Amino acid sequence: MAQSERSGRNAKGGVAKPERKPVRGSGADTVYETLRAEILTLKMEPGTLLDETDLAERFGLSRSPIREALIRLAAEGLVKTLRNRSSIVAPFDMIAIPSFLDASELLYRLTARLAATNRTQVQLGRIKHIHEQHSVATRERDMALMIRLNREFHLAIADASGNAFYANWMRQLLDQGQRILGSYLLDVSELGDHDLEGHWINAHLAIVEAIEARDADAAEAAGRRDFETIAVRMHERLTERPSKRLALT
């Protein structure tokens, strides 16, 4: 071993900086998955500044993978890049929820119906595989994973619809709606709504079975029920007023 290495000095005689130890599985993927989970579960609040230098220090990485992860998150609508090129967690638009729900119902029904008619065996296999993964995540109440796999499930169905425009619209819709779903699931988890597990898993299973049977009517109906599983409960949470249970006489 060279003397400079043994003494902790570099070749020019200066004190060598301690080498940063990257986190396990380091790289843009790790940063992306970690920040995405924190944003979706609202551990990182809307408007939070995402300083590249601070994040590089946190993850023990250079700024390049940090920047790459932020670009990916921005593409999903979870991060907003400002004019000065700094980044923040994207604002949360509660006003958009009714429009999001309306568009979700339409696309859930339409893509499921078309997938039942147009899917290939390979596409069906992918839909089944994602459903199995999502069922496990739902039983384990892994919210970040549930949200990601729900997105992948509906994207796989949209891809199987045979219409690239519908698939692209579904991707945009789900990307914009991830935190709406995440905020709802966080509330459900805190309230211990165990009924969600059976409803959500069974709703997805009904879609899979209808697509496999090439039953377009059943697939559309199952898509509607899947939407209602979330929409009805979300509406109940948003309109729940503790004061209405208070007896004043």
UniProtKB/TrEMBL annotation:
It comes from Sphingosinicella microcystinivorans. Residues 1-27 are annotated as: Disordered. Residues 25-92 form the HTH gntR-type domain. InterPro entries: GntR_C, TF_FadR/GntR_C, Tscrpt_reg_HTH_GntR, WH-like_DNA-bd_sf, WH_DNA-bd_sf. GO terms for molecular function: DNA binding; DNA-binding transcription factor activity. Pfam families: FCD, GntR. SMART domains: FCD, HTH_GNTR. Keywords: DNA-binding, Transcription, Transcription regulation. Transmembrane segments: none annotated. Signal peptide: none annotated. CDD domains: WHTH_GntR. This is DNA-binding GntR family transcriptional regulator.
